[in-house]
Amino acid sequence: MNKEQRHLNVTAIENGTVIDHIPANNVFKVLHILNLENNKNQVLFGDNLDSRKYGKKGLIKVSNTFFEGNEINKIALVAPTATFIEIKNFNVVTKKQVEVPDQIKSIVKCFNPNCISNVENVPSRFTVVDKENMKLLCHYCEKITARNNIVFF
Amino acid sequence: MKDKSLVSITDFNKDQYLRILEIAADFEKNPNQKLLNNHVVASLFFEPSTRTRLSFETAANRLGARVIGFSDSGSTSVKKGESLKDTIIMVSGYADIIVMRHPREGAARWASEVSSVPVINAGDGANQHPTQCLLDMYSIMQTQGTLDNLNIAFVGDLKYGRTVHSLVQAMCNFNANFHLVSPEELKLPSSSKMHIKNSNLSYTQYTELGDIIPVADIIYMTRIQKERFSDPLEYEKVKNSYVLTKSMLEGCKPNMKILHPLPRINEISEDVDETPQAFYFKQAENGVYVRQALLAAIAGVK
């Protein structure tokens, strides 16, 4: 694919953030976690785009919106490889990598059906005890939610 | 420990465990000390309990506190759909300390976060039961004269037994040597084994109860529950393999004592009750002194 074709896929933005290198098929989860479903600015996104690094990838461009570190790290569970690229006047200003946070709040459900956080209106809260294998220790029931049983709100 | 909630055994450190045990020994010598004359203790049992509730209420009474509460959530607003949060906020406006048991895991942690007064966890589902753990430690100290360097054997359901998990965690502070006797499907969970390894201690796993009799200082028996088995045939196979009888105790160490969180079904034969090794009823009695110590420490009067 040449440069011109690549440009046709998703148009450039003047000011805002490009979230690149999202694992393919996780774009909708990222949109949801960052609450871009309710963003009033222009939001462009693509999925299963060709990527030299990963084969297939997802990408989001959102105008006039910039993200803080703790917001960026919220998507670590679904897009640990993502890069946040800040654009001003069509120029790249900064690039930020996602980092797995120590604590995760209100994003993931505890896998234990008998946990109080699944029964009453309690915001879920986890300590990440294993960042590589994504093992989350529930602050309430003290059980471990592992990557294969992570469910998002 | 004043005004501190106790939800998990790990909420307290080694010095705090030892302090509670020291205060408990004082209450055992002199149980009626009216130190909490002006206190109201709320005893909220959202699910039934015999020993824990009665011993907590006895402890509060011996300290001169008044007890309010319920022993079954059926007669409360919970039945009308009131949230745990609302119940706890309301009760924390009435009482000085809340003691609660709840069927959901994490309920006590959540309660401690919304309550304006300290919360003592008297059991949250299959998660934690820290006061049982403290009274187990008290009983070990009382029978062995120390908590350090002991051979502790856990027998039966090591997978689901919450008292086993807490006691393993706590005894990792005292250089214990762990002997784990259970059927294949009820072995100690890897998280507890990890705890032992992280403390640079060792454990040995057995399937035969007889193997640990000559080495153990403490044998901690637990009940194997039928509902834990997906295959009823498996239960039938193992249900009688971890039964301790009087004749098996020959060759045990002279200082060896048998503990059990109770209730027992058939895992300790009744002929063991009359042996000098039987300690489980005294252990249940110790629950009162340990809970007195906790109430007094959290109220800030000891």
Considering the chains and any ligands shown, give keywords for the structure:
heterodimer; A: 153 residues; mainly beta; Alpha-Beta Plaits; SH3 type barrels; five-stranded antiparallel β-sheet; four-stranded antiparallel β-sheet; 3 helices; 11 strands; elongated; B: 302 residues; alpha/beta; Rossmann fold; 2 domains; five-stranded parallel β-sheet; four-stranded parallel β-sheet; 9 strands
Largest sheet of chain B: 5 strands, parallel
Query: Biggest interface, and residues per chain?
Result: A-B, 16 and 18 residues
Number of helices of chain B: 9
The order of strands across the largest sheet of chain A is 2-3-1-4-5
Helix-strand sequence of chain A: HEHEEHEEEEEEEE
In whole angstroms, the N-to-C terminal distance of chain B is 9 Å
The CATH topology of the largest domain in chain B turns out to be: Rossmann fold
Number of strands of chain A: 11
The CATH class of the largest domain in chain B is Alpha Beta
According to CATH, the homologous superfamily of the largest domain in chain A is Aspartate carbamoyltransferase regulatory subunit, N-terminal domain
User: What would the average pLDDT of chain A be, to the nearest integer?
Assistant: 89
- The level-1 CATH class of the largest domain in chain A: Alpha Beta
Helix and strand composition category of chain B = alpha/beta
Low-confidence stretches of chain B: none
Which term fits the overall shape of chain B?
globular
Task: Give the count of helical stretches of chain A.
Answer: 3
Strand content of chain A: 35-45%
What is the helix content of chain B?
A: 25-40%
Description:
The complex is a heterodimer of chains A (153) and B (302). Chain A has three helices and eleven strands, in the order αβαββαββββββββ. Chain A has 153 residues and is mainly beta. The longest helix of chain A has 7 residues, at 3-9. The radius of gyration of chain A is 17 Å and the shape is elongated. With 302 residues, chain B is of the alpha/beta class. Chain B has two domains: 31-128, Aspartate/ornithine carbamoyltransferase (Rossmann fold, 3-Layer(aba) Sandwich), CATH 3.40.50.1370; 131-284, Aspartate/ornithine carbamoyltransferase (Rossmann fold), CATH 3.40.50. Chain B is 35% helix and 15% strand. In chain B, the strands form two sheets. Chain B has a five-stranded parallel sheet with strand order 7-6-5-8-9, with helices on one face. Chain B is globular, with a radius of gyration of 19 Å. The A-B interface holds A 112, 114-117, 119-122, 138-144 and B 8, 83-85, 102-107, 109-110, 124-128, 191.
